[in-house]
Amino acid sequence: PLAFPIIAGAGTMTSIVSLRAEYHEINIAIAIFFNIIIVFAVLKLTRRIENVLGQGGIAILEKVFGIILLAIAVKLFSSNAKELFA
User: Percentage of residues in the chain with pLDDT exceeding 70?
Assistant: First the structure.
């Protein structure tokens, strides 16, 4: 129940709107299609992934993806701040 609002929530819509400013609609549609396939596979294989990675591996992945998300946020903020103050 917690995964679905994250996968298809407000963050998803924000990402699509921000991507639309830089990329063509067909590229975004193709990326969404591939993302759906990857998310489906990961959700189906969650138990196996947990068993293979263990608690330590999952903690490392959380930190790595947190850093990636932070980098994306900084890039979006800096590009928009340049336009705001220019």
Answer: 88
Determine the angle formed by the axes of helices 25-44 and 46-85, rounding to 10 degrees. 150
pTM: 0.55
| 7 neighbors 39 (Cβ within 8 angstroms) | yes
- pLDDT tens digit sequence for 46-83: 999 899 999 999 999 889 988 988 888 888 888 888 87
Q: Where are the alpha helices (DSSP H) in the chain?
A: 3-7, 10-20, 25-44, 46-85
Question: What is residue 24's DSSP assignment?
Answer: -
In single-letter form, the type of residue at position 39 comes to V
Taking the C-alpha atoms of residue 13 and residue 28, their distance in angstroms, rounded to an integer, is 12
What is the rounded distance in angstroms from the CA atom of residue 81 to the CA atom of residue 44? 40
